[in-house]
């Protein structure tokens, strides 16, 4: 049974033009100790998925799903307290814009100590607990590669550079020893060596402690290096999902193909100085969503049927939603 | 931090200096004799006039004239009032606490009422609670102060007769003047009928404070509501929720602090609005404060008093604003970034 199982998640946002579904029947599942990548352009609703999983969206937006289960328990149906207990103890989130996600008026020490769950504190007296909290915080900071822990803990978020803030958010997410880590663009803007260290850390935790990761990113190389499976998102719709090897070797959806082709380092056959390929146009805004398959206006293979949303089809654990998939005619 | 404090102090001193300069220049711009406007003594003989000229160093050029004026102002020699021939500085010292007292109580009431309502409206953004609080505050905001106070007098003093309509305290009580704050004075005095006097003073306070605080409460509600809405839409509140904190934990640990600290200077600004409104209210309720005194001075073209009153009120406002700003800077770390970005 998958650990997190989401089926047909729909998120509707109230705009002046009426209700717009920013996420349209997204399905996603994460197994125990799996690293799943969630890929898509900016504006495709990746962060919205993250926020709806942990319930950090405004109350007036409508979230509906056929299924949104955490270890078999329905997340949407349970009470606020139960859900908080799960997000506190079992799921951790690294939000985009690390420095904006930290409280500007509290030192980082207060913030990371707030995240330490009580079961990690073994000592009884409050002064011992205080010391232990600090020890745990320092240990976590060293783990993500922050060496100057005193400076970091006594600073406010705006006093530190963005990549330290990012590392700090990762430390803060890991401090509660989660079962599932949802990382929304955790390595964006980091220099390559630091990025590799963070990816290595996540992979190591995945291998040794069975940590599942939902890795939200644009970075196809990082994803190919560490993820087991991947889900491609376009404009709030799940386009294709499957294991990395399957998707890489044989993308079935035109969007996935375009996405993979747009990363030149993925293509070994690319001769020097050849034009880079990409889809024409941009991702539509929420005000101008096309009906049916939302890739329609940009899709090179679009036909009349594409105004209806294609049903999701599954082949050997590889699922896609397209009327005219690639390679279909070949056996 | 030290630089920040030094900057504020610098600002305070320069502003007060400019205020003094303005008040000095005013004496020459007012109609009539500049010497009379400065000293408040209508010059009778040439001898007396000469003596005043020496005192204000008017014949030694404008710079040393201003320097002398500055020294006299700092020494508390602000001239005498044209009408009553009493020293202005003593008058102001006696009257200013009455105005400050009124504004202070109104401020406290505005905060006590406005803060919870504003926070509630902000948390329940776009709900019926929010809408109703907002419309009540809009109504309160739209009342002209003078009309509201007249209406209150009409209803509660004249029609129903519950509350007195003017003055600080009934004439039956003789309160010795020590701090100028009437409630403090009563508590410190050695009178036999302390309780009755206190009750009477409180009854006199109700209507002026109420009419003053309604407008400010409305402003406070709107300020706080906006700030709470902004803070709750920000990423770090979402992040706090994703940590699994409960609503009350998020509210007390992250929400309130970030919502209130940035608007502290704006809240403090309301005190200046209050002081302005207090002048109107003081006239209507015959409250013996600086506002009533100043407006009387304006009616009677008592130029030395106008000059002194303006200087005193603006000095209070400037000092108050700058000290609140300094306090916020000490408490709120984010402002430091803005500070460093400026330099």
TrEMBL record, chain A:
InterPro entries: ABC_Ni/Peptide_Import (IPR050388), ABC_transporter-like_ATP-bd (IPR003439), Oligopep_ABC_C (IPR013563), P-loop_NTPase (IPR027417). Signal peptide: none annotated. PROSITE patterns: ABC_TRANSPORTER_2. It is found in: Cell inner membrane. GO terms for molecular function: ATP binding. Keywords: ATP-binding, Cell inner membrane, Cell membrane, Membrane, Nucleotide-binding, Transport. Residues 4-260 form the ABC transporter domain. PANTHER family: OLIGOPEPTIDE TRANSPORT ATP-BINDING PROTEIN APPD, PUTRESCINE EXPORT SYSTEM ATP-BINDING PROTEIN SAPD. Belongs to the ABC transporter superfamily. NCBIfam families: oligo_HPY (TIGR01727). This is ABC transporter ATP-binding protein. It comes from Lacimicrobium alkaliphilum.
UniProtKB/TrEMBL annotation, chain B:
It is found in: Cell inner membrane; Cell membrane. The chain crosses the membrane at residues 102-121, 133-158, 205-224, 267-290, 310-332. Residues 96-328 form the ABC transmembrane type-1 domain. It comes from the Bacteria. SUPFAM superfamilies: MetI-like (SSF161098). It holds the Pfam family BPD_transp_1. The keyword Membrane applies. It is a multi-pass membrane protein. CDD domains: TM_PBP2 (cd06261). InterPro entries: MetI-like, MetI-like_sf. Keywords: Cell inner membrane, Cell membrane, Membrane, Transmembrane, Transmembrane helix, Transport. Belongs to the binding-protein-dependent transport system permease family. OppBC subfamily. This is Antimicrobial peptide ABC transporter permease SapB. The lineage of its organism: Bacteria, Pseudomonadati, Pseudomonadota, Gammaproteobacteria, Alteromonadales.
């Amino acid at each position: 049974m998958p650990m997190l199982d989401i089926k047909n998640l729909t998120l509707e946002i109230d705009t002046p033009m009426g209700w717009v579904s920013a996420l349209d029947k997204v399905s996603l599942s994460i197994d125990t100790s799996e690293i799943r990548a969630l890929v898509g352009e900016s504006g495709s609703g990746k962060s919205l998925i993250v926020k709806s999983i942990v319930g950090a969206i405004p109350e007036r937006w409508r979230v509906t799903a056929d299924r949104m289960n955490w270890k078999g328990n329905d997340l949407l149906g349970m009470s606020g307290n139960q859900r908080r207990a799960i997000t506190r103890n079992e799921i951790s989130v690294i939000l985009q814009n690390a420095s904006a996600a930290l409280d500007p008026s509290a030192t980082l020490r207060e913030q990371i100590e707030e995240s330490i769950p009580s079961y990690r504190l073994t000592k009884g007296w409050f002064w011992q607990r205080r010391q232990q909290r600090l020890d745990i915080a320092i240990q976590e900071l060293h783990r993500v590669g922050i060496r100057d822990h005193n400076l970091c803990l006594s600073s406010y978020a705006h006093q530190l550079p963005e990549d330290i803030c990012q590392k700090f958010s990762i430390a803060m997410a890991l401090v509660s020893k989660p079962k599932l880590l949802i990382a929304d663009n955790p390595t964006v803007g980091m220099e390559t060596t630091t990025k590799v260290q963070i990816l290595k850390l996540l992979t190591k935790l995945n291998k040794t402690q069975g940590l599942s990761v939902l890795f939200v990113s644009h970075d196809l190389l990082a994803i190919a290096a560490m993820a087991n499976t991947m889900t491609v998102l376009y404009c709030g719709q799940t386009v294709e999902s499957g294991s990395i090897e399957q998707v890489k070797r044989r993308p079935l959806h035109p969007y996935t193909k375009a996405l993979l082709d747009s990363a030149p380092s993925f293509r070994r056959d690319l001769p020097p100085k050849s034009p880079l390929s990409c889809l024409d146009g941009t991702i539509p805004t929420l005000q101008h969503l096309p009906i049916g398959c939302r890739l329609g206006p940009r899709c090179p293979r679009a036909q009349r049927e594409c105004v209806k949303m294609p049903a999701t089809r599954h082949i050997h654990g590889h699922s896609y939603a397209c009327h005219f998939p690639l390679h279909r005619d070949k056996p | 931090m030290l630089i920040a404090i030094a900057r504020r102090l610098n600002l305070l001193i320069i502003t007060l200096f400019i205020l003094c300069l303005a008040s000095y220049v005013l004496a020459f711009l007012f109609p009539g004799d500049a010497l009379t406007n400065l000293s408040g003594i209508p010059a009778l003989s040439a001898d007396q006039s000469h003596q005043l000229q020496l005192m204000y160093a008017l014949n030694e050029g404008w710079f040393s004239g201003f320097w002398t004026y500055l020294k006299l102002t700092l020494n508390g020699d602000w001239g005498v009032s044209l009408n009553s021939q009493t020293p202005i500085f003593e008058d102001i010292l006696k009257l200013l606490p009455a105005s400050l007292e009124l504004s202070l109580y109104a401020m406290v009431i505005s905060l006590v009422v406005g803060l919870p309502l504003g926070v509630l409206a902000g948390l329940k953004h776009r709900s019926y609670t929010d809408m109703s609080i907002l419309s009540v505050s809009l109504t309160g905001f739209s009342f002209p102060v003078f009309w509201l106070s007249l209406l209150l007098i009409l209803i509660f003093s004249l029609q129903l007769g519950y509350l007195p309509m003017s003055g600080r305290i009934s004439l039956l009580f003789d309160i010795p003047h020590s701090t100028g704050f009437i409630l403090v004075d009563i508590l410190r005095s050695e009178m036999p009928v302390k309780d009755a006097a206190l009750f009477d003073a409180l009854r006199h306070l109700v209507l002026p404070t109420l009419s003053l605080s309604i407008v400010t409460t409305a402003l406070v509600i709107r300020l706080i509501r906006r700030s709470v809405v902004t803070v709750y839409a920000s990423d770090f509140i979402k992040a706090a929720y994703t940590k699994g904190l409960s609503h009350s934990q998020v509210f007390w640990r992250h929400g309130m602090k970030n919502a209130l600290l940035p608007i502290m200077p704006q809240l403090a600004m309301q005190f200046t609005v209050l002081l302005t409104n207090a002048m109107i209210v003081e006239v209507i309720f015959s409250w013996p404060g600086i506002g009533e005194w100043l407006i009387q001075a304006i009616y009677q073209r008592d130029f030395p008093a106008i000059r002194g009153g303006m200087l005193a009120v603006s000095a209070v406002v400037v000092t108050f604003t700058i000290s609140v700003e300094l306090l916020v800077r000490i408490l709120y770390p984010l402002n430091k970034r803005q500070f460093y970005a400026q330099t």
